[in-house]
Amino acid sequence: MEKRTTSEKIGDFFMHVILLVYSIICIYPFVLTFFVSLTSESSLIKYGYQLIPHEFSLAAYRTIFKDAAIYRSYGVTIAVTAIGTVLSLLICGLAGYALSLQRVKYRNAIAMYFYIPTVFSAGLLPWYLVCTDFLHLKDSFWALVLPMLVSTFNVFLLRNSFKTIPASLVESAEIDGCGPYRTFFQIIVPLSTPVIATVTLFIGLSYWNDWTNALWFINNENLYPLQYMLYRIQSRLQLALQTGQFGSDLPTQTYQIATLFVTIGPIILLYPFIQRYFVKGIMVGAVKG
Amino acid sequence: MKNAAGVKSNLAQKHPFLFEMKRNWLYYTMILPAMAVLFLFSYLPMPGLVIAFMDFNFVDKFHSPFVGLQNFKFYFTSNYAVRTTFNTLFINLNYLVWTTLIAVLFSIILNELRGRVFKKVYQNAMFLPYFFSSVVIGKLVTDIIFSDSYGVANQILNVLGFDSVAFSHTAAPWPWIIIGTHVWQVAGYQSIVYLASITGVDEQLYEAASLDGATRWQRIWYITLPMLLPTIFVMTLFSIGGMLRGDFANIYAIIGDNGLLYSTTDVIDTYVFRAIKTAADFGPTAAVGLYQSVVGFILVCGSNALVKLYDKDYALF
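Output (structure tokens, whole complex):
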């Protein structure tokens, strides 16, 4: 490695400072939130938000886990995430594979078909009418799964990665009498585990974090996913503030913040392990959009 | 054998489509589910844009009477048109400019720094906000940072000797809060995208530049930045098509139904959302949607053409 000049060392120092400060800005709100959720309500009202709580309390978490709602929502979110991720991966993966093959003559025209909606979309209202009036998704579990099933980005990401697999491999498998589906599941999928892991995580994360589909279509409390439940707490509070009607069941500040932490718990716990797959996936996708 | 081949090529010439289907139909069944889903959720709504020209009612639905451009007139002569269009463009343009600037800056810094461990730590930290839903981010912003009573922002203001601001009643700072939140959430992610295109740079280029006595600035200016340009172009093109589409989930998660903040933060998508949820006039709402789609489409094609003029390889299509 070449030696660094003094001016470069000074530059390095400032660059470290910039990234260090920004890193703290990125992490601090989450750390603060976590400790606020462990604060007792009375000490919160007295002292405000503090990184080190004046008075520890698990009361908020106890209230949350006493309520059946959180378990129900966890169930909904887990079901939506699991079913949605598997279906989406299967559908996008198969499409990406067929589109990656030279022998499929109309692959470019079909790629265009996938591309057009990213440039021209009908907008929210016609989409909403199709979903409610034609597909009858209102208050249906599938309203949380179907609208996000196909993402052009994921199809193209998978296609590009399948393209790097030597065509001779597919050809020889087919000469040996392997059908397209068998080739895909037994040869292509095992060879593409890194990109599939990445896409799985991308899809899983977007299902876990989705709440707008519930906002549009779900009125039934039994179908509230976690993030929507969290959203509802906030809007209930806003409504109370606006109308001035403070009911006795009004969620306390710590309760809200603890709920926030409960909904993101799994992501925080998994983050150290899955983060590198995202980085890898972006690297793959960036080679050629 | 020879005969069979003859029949085959005959079919291929006469009915290339049938020939292709016969040969590869199994492959097309692989694409079909994805095409069907896309058809239902992206193509099927498109004819629904005719509502923009109708006096839509729930009895006749798509057979409602046509009213020509009445709906467009309704929206464009209302106060909402200017306000929502301005807010949408203002927020989106700032998203684009600041996110790109900061992400490019971070990617260059990450590329310049040695020390693997430091880089890993920074990347991990910067990427973190990207993993959370807009509701979580919205709650952090409204309840933790910009809450009226205990918020971090007010604590900082107090320390600096300023009075607390009643954020929930003050419309002025919110566009910047929304923009800042967005940049905070995606800059780390995007810097990795940019870093990915820098790491594609041949190390020899840097070595040769060093041998020729290039300073760090020269290396960044003449090697790294030009390497980033294609990615910047592509990312910009992608976001330009959505210029008139609000970042609905994030903005709604932050502002919600707080009418006091609409004057500066109501974007077209949140306006449309309220119109649909309150089942207001659907005709004008669809007109707004058509306006967004058409302008978005023109913007994408226009900027793509501009990029093409500059360099064909950088264009999207």
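The first helix of chain A runs from residue 6 to 37.
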